Hints:
There is one protein chain. The protein has helices spanning 35-53, 57-73, 75-86, 90-111, 153-164, 179-190, 205-214, 227-237, 260-272, 292-304, 324-339, 368-371, 387-394, 410-419, 453-459; strands at residues 3-5, 8-10, 15-19, 26-31, 118-119, 130-138, 141-145, 168-172, 198-200, 220-224, 241-245, 250-254, 282-288, 343-346, 350-351, 354-355, 358-361, 378-384, 402-406, 424-427, 447-448, 461-469. It is of the alpha/beta class and 470 residues long. It folds into two domains: 3-246 and 443-469, Aldehyde Dehydrogenase, Chain A, domain 1 (3-Layer(aba) Sandwich); 250-427, Aldehyde Dehydrogenase, Chain A, domain 2 (3-Layer(aba) Sandwich). The radius of gyration is 23 Å and the shape is globular. It starts with a strand and ends with a strand. Bound molecules: NADP nicotinamide-adenine-dinucleotide phosphate (NAP). NADP nicotinamide-adenine-dinucleotide phosphate binds next to helix 7 and helix 8. NADP nicotinamide-adenine-dinucleotide phosphate binds at residues 145-150, 154, 172, 174-175, 204-206, 209-210, 213, 224-226, 229, 232-233, 245-248, 279, 373, 375, 401, 442, 447.
Amino acid sequence: MRMFLGGQWQDRSSRIDVTNPYDGAVIDTVPKATAADVDAALSTLVEGAKVMRNMPAYDRSAILRRAAGLMLAREQDLGRTISAEEGKILSEGLFEASRARETIDVSADEARRITSEVVPLDAAPGGKGKFGFTLRVPCGIVAAITPFNFPLNLVAHKVGPAIAAGNAVVIKPASDTPLSALKLVEILLEAGLPPEAIACVTGGGGEIGNALCTDRRVRKISFTGSYEIGDAICRMAGVKRVTMELGSNSPVIVLDDADLEKAANLVAVSGFSNAGQVCISAQRILVTTGVYGDFLDALKPRVAALKTGDQLAEGTKMGPMIRERDALRVESWVNEAVGAGAKLVTGGQRRGTIYEPTILANVSSAMRISCDELFGPAVAVTCVDGIDEAIRLANSTNYGLSASIFTQDIDRALKFAREVDSGNLHINWGTQWRADLMPYGGLKDSGLGKEGPHYAIREMTEEKMVVIHG
Length: 470
Ligand code: NAP
């Protein structure tokens, strides 16, 4: 495919291969953009931002609604593209495509609900006779930098609210998975988005990411990806608005009174969908002494039954990881934990980019598989003596994106919600659940700011204060 900038589809002689992570087959190629391309893209987007700023909310909403309709019509193609370039099984690719449509549809709703506020100035000393109100205006140009693992929906979570709020937007998709983003751009243009209001620049994060993040014409950076890159972006951004959706190593607490079958089912889903490459994948499973053995007995067959292989083949329950070096990382962390005394319950084998779904038991919180972000298909199970120890361990990392608890006791569930430092807290479900309209974002090193179209629009607009001196 070609990239889109300067109001048109453009090609370059230097190109990047987009490969299927299962067998390395080249699916397509995309241009390798340079910093000069970013400069050209931003020059046009400056004009596009003026067009968007003057476009009524009614029209912005209508464009997004038409785009959602086109996404529905192309759901099969979008789902297959996601699976082919990313490696998730086809049902997960199709589910992501339907969620991305929902994200764009909700953005269309929210475009019509951007309101301002009357401020009671007569309540201030000297405020008699004054009338004040806020005006919410677009930021201008939003840079949307996205990771590989949800190559369509996480782009939709940035582009939908950016357009709804009246901004121009430049997308920098992950180099491994640019095709889904480019297909979304095609759809938005077909739906009537002015061509000067959008760009999608494909190429390496080091060169074009830096060019985008340091450019003063970009007022807002919305980034989803690793802590390390997020931290680097915050340092180079200067005075810009930033939203950071970063990593995690989400804990699941299973107490003695839990429904063990349900907990085991949901850990098998939360820990292994998309081969564990979800920011809210269940990673650390903290189980109380009384049910520790029974829980492992319930979890093992469910995880062992996850058939691995070609993500596009029927019957496959878990596909490859995005790159072989990521599967090697998982292998080395699992081996390191086993060397330090953890017990391999199932899995532990690698074939190229496929790492078999793995359970480790007797994991201590100092092991890397527990304290860092694994981002792969393994869960680390640790025995705890009760809720206090479980909460202490849940909070014992730098991350705080999603956490869950299984218990029948409302008091202990509320204690968990109050005391665990996490942006998302689930009671009697796994960590991996999200409605696209809800506020979503992490605490601590898991990030800054919220996504979900209503909340993202707040972060992609600026507030002015108007005072009428009567
Ligand atoms: P990544 O390596 O941090 O890359 C994310 C994006 O940043 C890619 O588009 C990458 O481009 C770009 N990039 C790289 N260097 C850059 C630079 N110097 N300046 C600007 N952009 C730069 O992350 P990933 O491996 O794709 O995704 C996995 C990570 O994302 C995990 O940590 C996961 O937890 C996190 N994540 C978080 C959420 C959330 O909602 N909190 C959701 C999904 C994923 P290239 O691809 O060209 O390098």
